[in-house]
Each structure stands twice: as structure tokens, then as C-alpha cells.
Amino acid sequence: MKKKHLLSVGIFLLALPFQAQEKCSIQGTVKGLPDGTVLTLSRKNGRVMENVAVDTVRNSTFLFNIEPANQQTERIMLMGKGDGFPNTWLDIYIAPRQSVKVSGSNKLLRTWIVESAIPEQQYQNQFINATRKDMDVQQSLQAVTCALWNRVDHSESADEKAALRDSIRNVLHPQTDSIQRLIVKEEIRIMKDMPINDAWIDRMETFSAFVSFGADFPYTEEVRALYQRMPSELRETEIGKQITTQLYPPKTVKVGDALVDADLFDLQGTIHHLSDYKGKYLLLDFWSYGCGPCRMAMPEMKEMAEAWKDDLVIVSISTDSKSLWEKASEAEKMTWVNVNDLKGTNGIYMHYGIRGIPHYVIISPEGKLLHVWSGYGQGIIRAKLKEWVKK
């Protein structure tokens, strides 16, 4: 028995170096960062950015050792907290058994220099190097905007709050948007000849969202031309489908139209349809775990689901991945109809013309759209139901 025990321990010890090699190290040196500065690494889970590691700067340095998801190359995002940081992030590609070095000399982290042997990072660096000057201007404007919003939050003067908001809306946002258009124009130029890679696809996803959400986006045709470069197998991936639906959205329903239905799964995998509830009013609630106002609305949703149960069915439709939706549902203790078409924003979401969440739709017992609104404030759901639902 003793020999067997020693043998098993030996095998375990031999395995440790191989396990450690599966991680990727990120070593950073950024001059001027104060000791105690908090840096966070996040990865995307559907529409939500989840924190995976935190480090605190000491002597201008930081260190992360991260295991890539599924032991494959992936993009993660490095963000900074505190005064002077813009509300953006640094894109870093990591891979098993690779080392990444990050360097910089200020808090404009999106243009910090990233060095590694990972091919995707080389492509990412092409974009950054070509737009660094404009991107630094944009980040500086974003940092000022963050500082002004902080003053809005802490000011006790209504007049000062209004003046600060006007400065942000009428001065800083137009300047930031103008710089953004210059950056997009240059990146589109690069994408015309660059081999399709993860950094290329990431920008394609962003630009297709600009097309979907902004009627004044000036490069719609150029982005659609880039789409023609995407092979059919890429278009069939989850991100490919998202790009497709954002560039070529389906017809959306409006007030007075019949509802759009879909296969909607509950947490047990049972399929539901909106038509199952015909004969009662419906309140559709499109939401995500990463949406603060969506979660703020949950207590009122629970109260209304009980108060109006004889006349109304509340149907919350998550846009999150299955794993995140399950986590969110447990955290929120949802007692009403809670479903997901498992298509993110590429399924039923697109048919309702949603621009932001939470997004609510009141539907008549006959299946017609009665009223639509976005955003949450305390008491708004109660007020809307009193206005539109007839007992």
C-alpha cells in the first residue's frame, strides 16, 4: 500500500509542471501608474463581460497567469479603475504556454504596447499601430467624460449637474464620435486586404452593430462589402450569425402588428411559445444579467406577476448564454415565466427592433402589440400595466 501511495504522489508531482504550462502569463510594466492601481481582466460571455482576474500595481508592474478558455487562443480585455482611465479596455490575445508583455507610459490603456508570439495579437497590433494617434485623442476625451460624469454623481447642485450633462452631450460626445469615425475608416481600409482572423472578425462584429444601431453611420456599404469576404462556414458560426443579422436585420414588428413567436426554452428544456398564453395580456421583458436596470426591475416584476396573475402573464426572455442565464435565474429567484431562445440577439430579439435593454412589450389577449418602451425606473412597470391592461 505504501509503494502504491508513493507512486501516486510521484505521478501527481510529475503532472504539476504540465498543468502550469497550460496557462498564459501577462507581465506588464506601465510607467507612472500609482501603486495600488487596480487592473481587471475580463472575458466575454455572450453580451456580458465577466471578471476573471484582478491585480494591483506595484512599482509600475503587474502580473497575471491565466488559463485560456477551452485551452484555445482567446481575446481577453484589460481594464483599469480610477481617475484618468478611459472607459475602454486593452485587447490581449492569450494562448496556452505563451507569454505576453505589456508596456506603456500613461493611463491610455487601449494603446499600450502588447508583445507576444500569438498570431492574432500581431493582427490586432496592425490596427492599433495604424490608429494610435487618433485613439489616444479619443481615450483622452473619454477620460474627461468619465471625470465629468463623476462630478455629476457627486454634485448637489441641479444647475451644475445640468451644465455638466450638456457639456458631455454637446461637446465631448460629438468630438469622440468624430474621432471614432476616423478610426473606423482606417480600420476598414486595413480589413480590405488583411487575411480574415479573430481581430478582423471582432471588428466586423463591432462595425455591423454600428450599422444596425446608427442610421447616420457613414460606412454601411463598406462594411457590407467586407461581409462578402466572409466564407459561408464563418457566417454559420454564432458570431457570424450575429454579424449577418446586424447587417441584414429581419423585418421588425410595431405597435398594432401581430406578435412574433419562437421556440422559447425554460430552464428544464421545455419549449414554450407566446401563443400558449393567448387570451391573456402579455408583458415581454427582454433582459440580460449584465444589464443593471434589468436586474433592478426584478422585484417589481415579481410583485406585478403576482398582482396581475388573473389577467397577465409576464414572460422574461434572456439574451444570455445558457450558462449565464442559469446563473442569473438562480441569483434573481425568478418565479414567473423565464425563457431563452438560446440565440442571443440573433433570434426573437431582432424581430422586436430592440435598441437597448431592458425592453418591454405589452401584447393584447388577441396577440397584437399594444405598447413598447425601453428602460426602467421604479414604479414604471406598475404604471404601464395600469394604463394598458384592462381587468
UniProtKB/TrEMBL annotation:
<dbReference type="GO" id="GO:0017004">
    <property type="term" value="P:cytochrome complex assembly"/>
</dbReference>
<keyword id="KW-0676">Redox-active center</keyword>
<dbReference type="GO" id="GO:0030313">
    <property type="term" value="C:cell envelope"/>
</dbReference>
<keyword id="KW-0201">Cytochrome c-type biogenesis</keyword>
<dbReference type="InterPro" id="IPR013766">
    <property type="entry name" value="Thioredoxin_domain"/>
</dbReference>
<dbReference type="GO" id="GO:0016209">
    <property type="term" value="F:antioxidant activity"/>
</dbReference>
<dbReference type="GO" id="GO:0016491">
    <property type="term" value="F:oxidoreductase activity"/>
</dbReference>
<keyword id="KW-0732">Signal</keyword>
<protein>
    <submittedName>
        <fullName>Alkyl hydroperoxide reductase/ Thiol specific antioxidant/ Mal allergen</fullName>
    </submittedName>
</protein>
<dbReference type="Pfam" id="PF00578">
    <property type="entry name" value="AhpC-TSA"/>
</dbReference>
<feature type="signal peptide">
    <location>
        <begin position="1"/>
        <end position="20"/>
    </location>
</feature>
<dbReference type="InterPro" id="IPR050553">
    <property type="entry name" value="Thioredoxin_ResA/DsbE_sf"/>
</dbReference>
<dbReference type="InterPro" id="IPR000866">
    <property type="entry name" value="AhpC/TSA"/>
</dbReference>
<feature type="domain" description="Thioredoxin">
    <location>
        <begin position="253"/>
        <end position="391"/>
    </location>
</feature>
<dbReference type="InterPro" id="IPR036249">
    <property type="entry name" value="Thioredoxin-like_sf"/>
</dbReference>
<keyword id="KW-1015">Disulfide bond</keyword>
